[in-house]
Design goal:
Layout (H helix, E strand, L loop, with lengths): L3 E5 L8 H13 L2 E9 L13 H29 L3 E8 L4 H9 L4 E5 L7 H13 L4 E4 L11 E5 L4 H14 L4 E7 L14 H6 L5 E6 L6 H11 L4 E5 L2 E4 L2 E4 L1 H9 L4 E4 L1
Parallel strand pairs: 1-2, 1-4, 2-3, 4-5, 6-7, 6-9, 7-8, 9-12
Antiparallel strand pairs: 5-12, 10-11
Helix pairs in contact: 1-2, 3-4, 7-8
Length: 276
């Protein structure tokens, strides 16, 4: 059951897409929603401490405060219009520390929602996503930065390879799967060491026993990698939503993503629920 959700509110002109999508998720699930906007500390280049005038630092701080305030105001307005119980939260953080802070916060919720990092300008969002996935112990929905529509579950694509992470993702996604129109379990068969039939783990049959309308699609990836095969099938099948395991680990505070996870995060075109 998902009754308590947290979203990282993107900042800037187009930063509201994750918050808007989170409101639609909370509305569907009748859940409480907290929206977090970070007020970032001023950036002082190494060796420049003492040389930058205080008024410049204060100006940066005021601008960051104003941007975060605009984000929570927008979030509150969208939630109010939708009739969603929402709690705006503004927190101070450094650019480097925001990810870790959000990951710790997400532990106290059933689900975290974050926006996909935009190419060349989404370094902070990337850190937030990775920390939420690896450090929160909670499922994470990543919303594509091109997303304009609310949550839609007419066709849900479940990526299944028999792994622990995929199993966890399916279990975490069950409140959403139960509201879906149809579920397609997709198995890419060209992974080394992964079998087309996974003994004792017929996931399609398992989901059908929950009353879901399920199809199973087994496909050979051929010469393209697994992530590209999944993205291509999602487009061809007009999937609205994807569920998959998130692979990787943290090493000396640096997150190391698995290849498929990295590709999906960079090239996704539909919302994806990941669990680690």
């Amino acid at each position: 059951m998902i009754k308590d959700i947290v979203v990282n509110l993107g900042l800037g002109e187009d930063g509201g897409f994750a918050g808007d999508f989170a409101v639609s998720v909370a509305n569907m699930l009748d859940a409480h929603l907290a929206g977090v906007a970070f007020v970032y500390a001023a950036i002082i280049p190494e060796g420049a401490i003492g040389y930058i005038p205080p008024e410049v630092i204060e100006s940066q701080q005021r601008e960051s405060q104003s941007t975060a305030q605009a984000a929570v105001d927008r979030f509150s307005a969208v939630a109010t219009r939708a009739g969603v119980a929402a709690e705006p939260i503004m927190l101070s953080a450094s650019f480097a520390g925001a990810g870790e802070q959000f990951g710790l916060i997400a532990r106290r919720f059933d689900l975290a929602i974050v926006g996909q990092a935009e190419p060349d300008k989404g370094a902070v969002e990337q850190l937030v996503t990775e920390s939420a996935l690896f450090e929160s112990g909670r499922p994470v929905i990543i919303v594509p930065y091109i997303q304009k529509a609310p949550l839609k579950l007419d066709r849900v694509m479940v990526c299944w390879d028999g792994s622990r992470a995929a199993t966890r993702a399916i279990g975490d996604a069950m409140p959403l799967l139960e509201r879906s129109g149809a579920v397609e379990v997709v198995i890419v068969t060209n992974e080394r060491g992964k079998q087309d039939e996974i003994s004792g783990a017929d996931m399609g049959q398992h989901l059908a026993r929950h009353g879901l309308k399920v199809d199973v699609k087994r496909m050979a990836g051929g010469k393209i990698d697994v992530a590209d095969a999944l993205l291509s099938h999602a487009a061809d099948s007009s999937a609205d939503f994807m569920v998959m395991g998130g692979y990787g680990h943290s090493r000396l505070r640096e997150f190391v993503l698995g290849g498929a996870t990295r590709t999906i995060l960079s090239s996704m075109t539909i919302p994806v629920l990941m669990s680690h």
